[in-house]
Design goal:
The complex is a heterodimer of chains A (about 160) and B (about 130). Chain A has about 160 residues and is mostly helical. Helix content of chain A is about 40%, strand content about 0%. With about 130 residues, chain B is mainly alpha-helical. Chain B has a single domain (about 25-130), classed as Orthogonal Bundle (Cytochrome Bc1 Complex, Chain D, domain 2), CATH 1.10.760. Chain B has 6 helices and 2 strands. Chain B has helices at about 1-20, 25-35, 45-50, 65-70, 100-115, 120-130; strands spanning about 75, 85. In chain B, α2 (about 25-35) packs antiparallel against α6 (about 120-130) and α3 (about 45-50) crosses α6 (about 120-130). The longest helix of chain B is centred in the first third of the chain and has 20 residues, at about 1-20. Chain B is globular. Classes of the chains: A mainly alpha (about 160), B mainly alpha (about 130).
Chain lengths: ~160, ~130
């Protein structure tokens, strides 16, 4: 009987180790945000700008944004109701707080409960992560706007936001 | 039985034949022509429209070329910093083959640049211009 303890213990240690490693890989140290997988969402939300990962904002932010597409950061980005409904469902289901988690993604830390922020670049965590980026870099002709993630994060379309 | 087969396959061949001649772009042009009650579109007029500066739309997008660039065969750049496929069909062969998408972007871009929707005549001229580029 005693001889059984060792393999079980080794098994458990291996399992625990794998879980830790896999979690880190999945979370990418907090720098991985699963890109939009739905082709309709990618087309409709990704023609003018990067199709931002739904996990970067809470569900209530996406609901508000999809209800105000006629005033979308200064543009009228209205689309037909059926498509809008489909996109909203996808964004909400994959939002940063989907499944009842308060901070599905670390990026949502510090966002007040009930608040529905619209700009990812105004999230407290986004700001602190980018605090060292000098002003001239934001004004660079290849950057233009803080919403142009791919200018610096070259693999942003694949979901990776490491330096 | 055999006769029916021959007739049917002949009919299908005819359908396929006409389909090969009239692609989605030609269908769109035909629709615009019918709506504009015109028989001809002009690539030159389309080019003028493309390069013209308007004041009725949004101040930061006074012209098609603001985002699409001056060369129709080169990629454009949206104000967000995202690249836009060239408008010229020679440089982007799959363009304008989805009529709903064409209409969606005419509506959106004309409103932003001209401050109104484009007329069927303008759409036909512009489409003729980029198809010929």
């Amino acid at each position: 009987m005693r001889t059984l303890y060792r393999p079980i213990a080794i098994g458990l240690v291996t399992l625990a180790f794998s879980v830790v490693v896999l979690n880190r890989v999945q979370a990418g140290d907090g720098h991985f945000f699963a890109p939009v997988a739905d082709p309709v969402v990618r087309e409709e939300c990704g023609s003018c700008h990067l199709a931002f990962a739904p996990s970067m904002l809470p569900a209530r932010s996406w609901e508000r944004m999809m209800g105000e597409l006629d005033k979308h950061f200064g543009d009228n980005a209205s689309i037909d109701a059926v498509t809008a409904e489909k996109i909203t469902r996808y964004l909400v289901a994959n939002a940063g707080d989907a499944g009842g988690q308060r901070y599905g993604s670390k990026l949502l830390k510090g966002v007040a409960m009930g608040a529905s922020p619209q700009r990812i670049t105004e999230l407290p965590k986004w700001r602190s992560e980018h605090r060292k980026v000098p002003d001239w870099e934001w004004r660079h002709k290849d950057v233009r706007t803080k919403a142009n993630c791919v200018a610096c994060h070259t693999a942003a379309e694949q979901g990776y936001y490491d330096e | 039985m055999r006769n029916i087969l021959v007739v049917t396959s002949g009919f299908i061949a005819m359908l396929l034949g006409t389909g090969a001649f009239a692609g989605p772009r030609e269908d769109l042009l035909a629709q615009y022509a019918a709506a504009a009650k015109t028989t001809g579109f002009s690539a030159a007029r389309g080019q003028t429209l493309h390069n013209q500066t308007f004041s009725g739309g949004k101040p930061n997008t006074p012209s098609c070329t603001t985002c699409h660039g001056k060369d129709a065969r080169s990629a454009g750049l949206a104000l967000t910093g995202k690249a836009i496929e060239p408008v010229a069909v020679s440089a982007a062969p799959t363009r304008y083959t989805d009529p709903a998408k064409v209409e969606k972007w005419f509506k959106r871009n004309c409103t932003e640049v001209l401050g109104r929707e484009c007329t069927p005549q303008e759409k036909g001229d512009w489409l003729t211009f980029v198809i010929g580029q």
